[in-house]
Design a protein that fits this description.
three-stranded mixed sheet, 276 residues, seven-stranded mixed sheet
Length: 276
Amino acid sequence: MSEPTVIDTGTPELLAQLDAGVLTLTMNRPDARNAMSRAMNTALQEQLALAEFNHAVRCIVLTGAGKGFCAGGDVKGMAASGDGTVGAQTIDQAIHRQRVNQRATAGKLFKMPKPTVAALPGAAAGAGLALALACDLRIMASTAVMTTAFAKVGFSGDYGGSYFLTQLVGTAKARELYFLSERVGADEALRLGLTNWVCAPEELAERTRALALRLATGPTVAYRYMKENLNRALAGEVDDCMDLEATHHVHCGQTEDHREATKAFVAKREPVFNGR
């Protein structure tokens, strides 16, 4: 079994490691509850862009160092500068930068043609919550919480949180969570469908690894098209969705993974997928 590969992201604020097809990206500002900095954001964009076309990456895990997942924007830094969005830029420049940053992080996690998993050891707030909700699957420590948090700092919200939250819990609950910014515990998050699994904090790393390895050894081509089907279904018309499913289904039938799976089924053994 090969050793994990540590990847240089150009900053200690984002750690990256590739192991058995699983790319683990760790937001690493534990003293600031992993609040997003420009260096972290830039590195995350670069690593996700590279991962999309790296055939050795078959699953991506996003997590946070220490006891938090991600607190969102660096509110202390905003308070110190007195300007949370524009700074030395014009408003138009700031809006363009924000759009690019969002699409290359939360947008990339959502559209990436590979399974993405958020592992929450602790709080996910604001844009940090949006990053978690952008992933395909979420697993939380029982002590972790989620909160939109934006209303408490006078922001309307960013990084796609309003879209992801509305899709997961519906419009009325999304409005409640945005307007009131209340904390949602792990059990409530599970009930609402904001997370897929809850586990003891000491089990989070092991449970996440087992899930990620299962995805990384699964039928990569089929996962790619499943994800596109499901994303398109969010706003698609039923016939368009079925037509897309037909195209993808027939295509998957021509893959080595499909042929291996059918042989394994007949032989009553586990299939070994190669992603082709």
